[in-house]
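Recall that a protein's primary structure is simply its ordered list of amino acids. Everything else, from secondary elements to tertiary packing, is in principle encoded there. The following example makes that idea concrete.
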Amino acid sequence: MNIKIGTRGSKLALAQTNSVLESIKKIAPDITAEICVIKTSGDIMQDVSLLQIGGQGVFVKEIEEALLSGSIDLAVHSMKDVPGETPDGLTFAAMLPREDVRDILVSRGNIKMEFMPRGAKIGTGSLRRGAQIKAMLPDVTIVPLRGNIDTRLKKIETENLTGIILAAAGMKRLGYMEKIAQYLPIELMLPAVGQGALGLQIRKADSELANVLAKLNHAATAAEVTAERSYLRALGGGCRLPIAALGKLAGKELSLEGLVAAPNGASICRDKVRGEIAEAEELGKRLADMIMEKGGKKLLNLVC
Protein backbone atom coordinates (compact mmCIF):
# COMPACT_ATOMS: atom_id res chain seq x y z
CA MET A 1 0.00 0.00 0.00
CA ASN A 2 1.26 3.46 -0.91
CA ILE A 3 -0.08 6.40 1.09
CA LYS A 4 0.32 10.16 1.14
CA ILE A 5 0.58 11.78 4.57
CA GLY A 6 -0.48 15.40 4.94
CA THR A 7 1.03 17.75 7.50
CA ARG A 8 1.85 21.37 8.18
CA GLY A 9 5.38 22.41 7.27
CA SER A 10 6.73 23.62 10.62
CA LYS A 11 9.74 21.94 12.19
CA LEU A 12 7.48 20.52 14.92
CA ALA A 13 4.81 19.25 12.52
CA LEU A 14 7.43 17.52 10.35
CA ALA A 15 9.12 15.97 13.40
CA GLN A 16 5.78 14.61 14.56
CA THR A 17 4.88 13.27 11.12
CA ASN A 18 8.24 11.56 10.65
CA SER A 19 7.80 9.93 14.05
CA VAL A 20 4.36 8.66 12.97
CA LEU A 21 5.82 7.34 9.72
CA GLU A 22 8.46 5.38 11.63
CA SER A 23 5.73 3.86 13.81
CA ILE A 24 3.71 2.87 10.73
CA LYS A 25 6.74 1.21 9.14
CA LYS A 26 7.26 -0.91 12.25
CA ILE A 27 3.75 -2.36 12.15
CA ALA A 28 3.37 -2.43 8.35
CA PRO A 29 6.78 -2.68 6.61
CA ASP A 30 5.13 -3.06 3.19
CA ILE A 31 3.58 0.41 3.31
CA THR A 32 5.38 3.12 1.36
CA ALA A 33 4.61 6.72 2.20
CA GLU A 34 5.14 10.21 0.89
CA ILE A 35 4.94 13.24 3.18
CA CYS A 36 2.99 16.13 1.65
CA VAL A 37 3.39 19.58 3.22
CA ILE A 38 0.17 21.60 3.19
CA LYS A 39 0.08 25.31 4.01
CA THR A 40 -2.91 26.16 6.18
CA SER A 41 -4.49 29.57 6.56
CA GLY A 42 -3.08 29.68 10.08
CA ASP A 43 0.43 29.24 8.69
CA ILE A 44 0.02 31.77 5.89
CA MET A 45 -1.59 34.60 7.87
CA GLN A 46 1.01 35.16 10.57
CA ASP A 47 0.43 38.87 11.05
CA VAL A 48 -3.11 38.67 12.44
CA SER A 49 -4.60 36.98 15.49
CA LEU A 50 -6.11 33.52 15.20
CA LEU A 51 -9.50 34.91 16.19
CA GLN A 52 -9.48 37.27 13.20
CA ILE A 53 -8.91 34.41 10.74
CA GLY A 54 -11.38 31.98 12.24
CA GLY A 55 -10.04 30.77 15.57
CA GLN A 56 -9.83 27.02 16.11
CA GLY A 57 -9.53 25.05 12.87
CA VAL A 58 -7.23 27.41 10.96
CA PHE A 59 -4.40 24.86 11.19
CA VAL A 60 -6.43 21.88 9.94
CA LYS A 61 -9.06 23.08 7.44
CA GLU A 62 -6.91 22.81 4.31
CA ILE A 63 -5.50 19.46 5.43
CA GLU A 64 -8.98 18.03 5.96
CA GLU A 65 -10.00 19.33 2.53
CA ALA A 66 -7.00 17.50 1.02
CA LEU A 67 -8.15 14.30 2.74
CA LEU A 68 -11.68 14.66 1.44
CA SER A 69 -10.47 15.37 -2.10
CA GLY A 70 -8.21 12.31 -2.09
CA SER A 71 -4.96 14.22 -2.59
CA ILE A 72 -3.69 12.76 0.71
CA ASP A 73 -4.69 9.59 2.57
CA LEU A 74 -3.68 10.36 6.15
CA ALA A 75 -3.38 13.54 8.20
CA VAL A 76 -1.28 13.93 11.35
CA HIS A 77 -2.86 16.51 13.66
CA SER A 78 -1.92 18.05 16.97
CA MET A 79 -5.29 17.49 18.60
CA LYS A 80 -5.29 20.85 20.36
CA ASP A 81 -5.59 22.45 16.89
CA VAL A 82 -8.61 20.37 15.86
CA PRO A 83 -12.18 21.76 16.17
CA GLY A 84 -14.73 19.76 18.14
CA GLU A 85 -16.67 18.77 15.02
CA THR A 86 -15.15 16.36 12.48
CA PRO A 87 -16.24 16.80 8.83
CA ASP A 88 -18.54 14.16 7.38
CA GLY A 89 -16.54 11.45 5.68
CA LEU A 90 -13.52 11.73 7.98
CA THR A 91 -12.60 9.90 11.18
CA PHE A 92 -9.72 9.49 13.58
CA ALA A 93 -8.22 6.02 13.11
CA ALA A 94 -5.82 6.33 16.07
CA MET A 95 -4.68 8.50 18.94
CA LEU A 96 -1.00 8.07 19.76
CA PRO A 97 0.31 7.88 23.35
CA ARG A 98 0.03 11.34 24.85
CA GLU A 99 3.05 13.52 25.60
CA ASP A 100 3.23 15.84 28.62
CA VAL A 101 -0.04 17.81 28.74
CA ARG A 102 1.31 20.79 30.70
CA ASP A 103 2.14 24.30 29.58
CA ILE A 104 5.61 25.67 30.25
CA LEU A 105 7.29 29.03 30.79
CA VAL A 106 10.40 30.17 28.95
CA SER A 107 11.69 33.39 30.52
CA ARG A 108 14.58 35.82 30.75
CA GLY A 109 16.97 34.61 33.42
CA ASN A 110 14.80 31.52 33.94
CA ILE A 111 12.59 33.50 36.32
CA LYS A 112 9.57 31.49 37.53
CA MET A 113 5.98 32.69 37.26
CA GLU A 114 5.62 33.37 41.00
CA PHE A 115 8.57 35.78 40.88
CA MET A 116 7.43 37.78 37.87
CA PRO A 117 7.92 41.55 38.38
CA ARG A 118 4.90 43.85 38.33
CA GLY A 119 3.96 44.72 34.77
CA ALA A 120 5.86 41.77 33.33
CA LYS A 121 5.20 41.17 29.61
CA ILE A 122 4.10 37.58 28.93
CA GLY A 123 3.72 36.42 25.34
CA THR A 124 1.00 34.00 24.23
CA GLY A 125 -1.40 33.68 21.33
CA SER A 126 -3.87 31.67 23.42
CA LEU A 127 -6.96 33.15 25.10
CA ARG A 128 -6.93 30.15 27.45
CA ARG A 129 -3.38 30.80 28.61
CA GLY A 130 -3.88 34.54 28.80
CA ALA A 131 -6.97 34.26 31.00
CA GLN A 132 -5.34 31.84 33.43
CA ILE A 133 -2.17 33.95 33.65
CA LYS A 134 -4.26 37.05 34.42
CA ALA A 135 -6.13 35.10 37.10
CA MET A 136 -2.75 34.27 38.70
CA LEU A 137 -1.06 37.62 38.11
CA PRO A 138 -3.58 40.39 37.38
CA ASP A 139 -0.89 43.05 36.89
CA VAL A 140 1.04 41.34 34.07
CA THR A 141 0.64 42.44 30.46
CA ILE A 142 -0.35 39.77 27.94
CA VAL A 143 1.37 40.28 24.57
CA PRO A 144 -0.26 38.54 21.56
CA LEU A 145 2.14 36.05 19.98
CA ARG A 146 2.03 34.13 16.70
CA GLY A 147 4.49 31.92 14.83
CA ASN A 148 6.20 28.57 15.27
CA ILE A 149 8.13 27.68 18.41
CA ASP A 150 11.47 29.04 17.17
CA THR A 151 9.84 32.32 16.12
CA ARG A 152 8.16 32.68 19.50
CA LEU A 153 11.38 31.98 21.38
CA LYS A 154 13.17 34.72 19.42
CA LYS A 155 10.43 37.20 20.32
CA ILE A 156 11.52 37.12 23.96
CA GLU A 157 14.43 39.26 22.77
CA THR A 158 12.95 41.08 19.78
CA GLU A 159 9.81 42.18 21.65
CA ASN A 160 11.47 42.56 25.05
CA LEU A 161 9.23 39.99 26.73
CA THR A 162 9.69 38.76 30.28
CA GLY A 163 8.63 35.30 29.15
CA ILE A 164 6.38 33.23 26.89
CA ILE A 165 4.03 30.30 27.49
CA LEU A 166 4.25 27.22 25.26
CA ALA A 167 3.10 23.60 25.33
CA ALA A 168 5.51 21.19 26.99
CA ALA A 169 4.78 18.57 24.32
CA GLY A 170 6.17 20.63 21.45
CA MET A 171 9.28 21.62 23.39
CA LYS A 172 9.99 17.98 24.23
CA ARG A 173 9.40 16.74 20.69
CA LEU A 174 11.92 19.29 19.40
CA GLY A 175 14.45 18.53 22.15
CA TYR A 176 14.21 22.02 23.69
CA MET A 177 13.78 20.94 27.32
CA GLU A 178 16.84 22.90 28.48
CA LYS A 179 15.06 26.14 27.56
CA ILE A 180 12.18 25.49 29.97
CA ALA A 181 12.20 27.70 33.08
CA GLN A 182 9.11 26.17 34.67
CA TYR A 183 6.45 23.51 34.11
CA LEU A 184 3.15 25.14 35.05
CA PRO A 185 1.01 22.94 37.31
CA ILE A 186 -2.40 21.81 36.07
CA GLU A 187 -4.00 23.48 39.09
CA LEU A 188 -2.88 26.89 37.78
CA MET A 189 -2.88 26.28 34.03
CA LEU A 190 -5.42 23.76 32.76
CA PRO A 191 -4.37 22.69 29.24
CA ALA A 192 -6.16 22.97 25.93
CA VAL A 193 -8.51 20.24 24.77
CA GLY A 194 -6.35 17.53 23.18
CA GLN A 195 -3.04 19.11 24.23
CA GLY A 196 -0.08 16.72 23.92
CA ALA A 197 -2.01 14.22 21.76
CA LEU A 198 -1.47 13.37 18.09
CA GLY A 199 -4.42 12.12 16.07
CA LEU A 200 -4.29 10.18 12.81
CA GLN A 201 -7.19 11.23 10.58
CA ILE A 202 -8.35 9.33 7.49
CA ARG A 203 -11.39 8.95 5.27
CA LYS A 204 -14.07 6.75 6.83
CA ALA A 205 -14.18 4.60 3.70
CA ASP A 206 -10.48 3.63 3.91
CA SER A 207 -11.03 0.45 5.92
CA GLU A 208 -7.70 -1.16 4.96
CA LEU A 209 -5.72 1.82 6.25
CA ALA A 210 -7.97 2.03 9.32
CA ASN A 211 -7.14 -1.58 10.22
CA VAL A 212 -3.41 -0.85 10.01
CA LEU A 213 -3.54 2.35 12.05
CA ALA A 214 -5.78 0.80 14.72
CA LYS A 215 -2.67 -1.04 15.91
CA LEU A 216 -1.16 2.31 16.89
CA ASN A 217 -4.18 3.49 18.89
CA HIS A 218 -3.53 4.22 22.57
CA ALA A 219 -6.79 3.46 24.37
CA ALA A 220 -6.15 5.70 27.40
CA THR A 221 -5.29 8.72 25.26
CA ALA A 222 -8.28 8.07 23.00
CA ALA A 223 -10.64 7.99 26.00
CA GLU A 224 -9.18 11.15 27.52
CA VAL A 225 -9.33 13.11 24.26
CA THR A 226 -12.84 11.81 23.49
CA ALA A 227 -14.09 13.18 26.82
CA GLU A 228 -12.34 16.52 26.33
CA ARG A 229 -13.66 16.97 22.80
CA SER A 230 -17.18 16.04 23.89
CA TYR A 231 -16.95 18.82 26.50
CA LEU A 232 -15.74 21.27 23.83
CA ARG A 233 -18.62 20.38 21.49
CA ALA A 234 -21.21 20.63 24.27
CA LEU A 235 -20.05 24.17 25.09
CA GLY A 236 -20.13 25.17 21.43
CA GLY A 237 -16.50 24.64 20.51
CA GLY A 238 -16.18 27.54 18.07
CA CYS A 239 -16.85 30.12 20.77
CA ARG A 240 -14.25 32.86 21.20
CA LEU A 241 -13.87 32.25 24.92
CA PRO A 242 -11.08 30.65 26.97
CA ILE A 243 -11.93 26.95 27.27
CA ALA A 244 -9.72 24.25 28.82
CA ALA A 245 -10.15 20.60 29.73
CA LEU A 246 -8.12 17.59 30.82
CA GLY A 247 -9.18 13.95 30.90
CA LYS A 248 -7.16 11.50 32.96
CA LEU A 249 -7.56 7.72 33.03
CA ALA A 250 -6.43 6.04 36.26
CA GLY A 251 -7.14 2.33 36.33
CA LYS A 252 -10.75 2.02 35.20
CA GLU A 253 -11.76 5.52 36.31
CA LEU A 254 -11.82 8.41 33.85
CA SER A 255 -11.80 11.91 35.34
CA LEU A 256 -12.48 15.07 33.38
CA GLU A 257 -11.74 18.59 34.57
CA GLY A 258 -12.75 21.67 32.61
CA LEU A 259 -13.09 25.40 32.75
CA VAL A 260 -14.54 28.39 30.99
CA ALA A 261 -13.11 31.83 31.75
CA ALA A 262 -13.58 35.49 31.02
CA PRO A 263 -10.79 36.62 28.65
CA ASN A 264 -9.34 38.89 31.37
CA GLY A 265 -9.29 36.07 33.92
CA ALA A 266 -11.59 37.96 36.29
CA SER A 267 -14.13 35.11 36.31
CA ILE A 268 -13.41 31.38 35.96
CA CYS A 269 -15.91 28.52 36.11
CA ARG A 270 -14.16 25.23 36.82
CA ASP A 271 -15.41 21.76 37.80
CA LYS A 272 -14.63 18.05 37.56
CA VAL A 273 -16.50 14.79 36.91
CA ARG A 274 -15.59 11.11 37.16
CA GLY A 275 -16.88 7.96 35.52
CA GLU A 276 -15.93 4.85 33.59
CA ILE A 277 -13.94 4.77 30.36
CA ALA A 278 -17.05 3.75 28.41
CA GLU A 279 -18.71 6.99 29.53
CA ALA A 280 -16.11 9.27 27.93
CA GLU A 281 -18.56 10.98 25.58
CA GLU A 282 -21.21 11.37 28.27
CA LEU A 283 -18.72 12.77 30.80
CA GLY A 284 -17.94 15.66 28.48
CA LYS A 285 -21.62 16.55 28.16
CA ARG A 286 -22.18 16.23 31.90
CA LEU A 287 -19.24 18.47 32.74
CA ALA A 288 -20.38 21.08 30.23
CA ASP A 289 -23.81 21.17 31.91
CA MET A 290 -22.19 21.62 35.32
CA ILE A 291 -19.92 24.41 34.08
CA MET A 292 -22.86 26.17 32.43
CA GLU A 293 -24.83 26.06 35.68
CA LYS A 294 -21.89 27.47 37.67
CA GLY A 295 -21.73 30.61 35.55
CA GLY A 296 -20.34 29.40 32.26
CA LYS A 297 -23.63 30.12 30.49
CA LYS A 298 -23.44 33.77 31.50
CA LEU A 299 -19.87 34.02 30.18
CA LEU A 300 -20.79 32.28 26.93
CA ASN A 301 -23.76 34.58 26.40
CA LEU A 302 -21.56 37.64 26.84
CA VAL A 303 -18.98 36.62 24.23
CA CYS A 304 -20.42 34.06 21.83
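The mean pLDDT is 92. DSSP finds nine helices and 13 strands in the chain.
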